[in-house]
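User: Just a sanity check before I run the rest of the batch. Below are the structure tokens for the first item. I only need the designed sequence back.
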């Protein structure tokens, strides 16, 4: 353990940056959606970084108390929290004609509330940091109007941009910055069919679907002291699939 390192909490799609941030000298606290995921992530961490890594299971039931306990553990282990990077929400590919109003209202909070909850509960520790960084992941669909991730996902991620900018304005006086990374197609643990992957990549000017190696360096920059003059921004990390 090194309490003099900066500490980052990652959640959702930001989990992909865990190894990169450890290699860059950060303490990393990972919020998992199940104990199995927490254990699996812990098992992949090389021995040399074990003291600088913690994985926590944050359940849906009694979420507020669970997050509070985890943040107390992070402060005890690492002395505080400097950076939060989060991106969560259930993908649902349906659009207007296929989605009932009830289903839409059930899906939308998966995106908005998850971000709001993390932003609210980590704020005191980011204030204490004096140079806090909050990074929300969103989709390029939130800006392009295309619904490759469904209408609820596009609307939810657009809402996250608004949340992030409100946060950036409200808490800049504490040395906190808040920005979004808008991603396009991302490789996950799921294997894509070769023809489907080729079709997606044909629409990406840089020629390939993003990997952690493409996105983690952007997150690292936004987490750093060097990004102190950037706040309220949406960084387009789509490989040119969307250009505004």
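Assistant: Here's the designed sequence for the first item:
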């Amino acid at each position: 353990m090194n309490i003099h390192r900066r500490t980052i909490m990652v959640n959702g799609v930001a989990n992909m940056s865990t190894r990169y941030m450890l290699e860059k000298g950060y303490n990393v606290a990972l919020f998992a959606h199940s104990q199995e995921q927490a254990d699996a992530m812990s098992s992949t961490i090389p021995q040399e970084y074990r003291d600088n890594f913690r994985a926590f299971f944050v359940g849906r039931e009694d979420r507020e108390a669970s997050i509070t306990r985890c943040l107390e553990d992070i402060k005890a282990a690492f002395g505080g929290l400097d950076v939060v990077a989060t991106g969560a929400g259930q993908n649902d590919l349906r659009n207007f004609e296929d989605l009932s109003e009830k289903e839409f209202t059930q899906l939308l909070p998966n995106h908005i509330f998850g971000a709001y909850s993390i932003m609210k509960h980590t704020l005191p520790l980011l204030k204490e940091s004096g140079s806090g960084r909050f990074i929300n992941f969103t989709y390029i669909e939130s800006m392009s109007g295309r619904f490759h991730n469904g209408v609820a996902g596009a609307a939810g991620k657009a809402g996250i941009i608004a949340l992030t900018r409100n946060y950036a304005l409200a808490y800049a006086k504490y040395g906190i910055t808040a920005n979004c990374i808008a991603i396009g197609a991302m490789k996950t643990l799921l294997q894509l069919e070769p023809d489907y992957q080729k079709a997606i990549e044909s629409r990406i000017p840089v020629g390939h679907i993003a990997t952690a190696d493409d996105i983690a360096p952007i997150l690292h920059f936004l987490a750093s002291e060097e990004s102190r003059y950037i706040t309220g921004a949406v960084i387009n990390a789509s490989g040119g699939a969307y250009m505004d």
